[in-house]
Design brief:
Length: 56
């Protein structure tokens, strides 16, 4: 597989983007459900990037 590493990179990148998108959708669904129940949800500023989530 020497020299064929570029076959792996695009599917790996697409998979990572898919996982991030699913996390955002699940977070949005949770917020909507909490609002329907009547739980006050703080509107927080969205931080993009991997470091912002890791160092909270």
């Amino acid at each position: 597989m020497t020299g064929r590493w570029w076959y792996i990179i695009p599917p790996l990148a697409a998979f990572m983007i898919l996982i991030i998108a699913m996390q955002w959708m699940i977070q949005g669904i949770k917020e909507v459900q909490l609002r329907r129940v009547g739980v006050p949800v703080k509107q927080r500023a969205r931080k993009f990037g991997f470091k912002s989530r890791a160092f909270r």
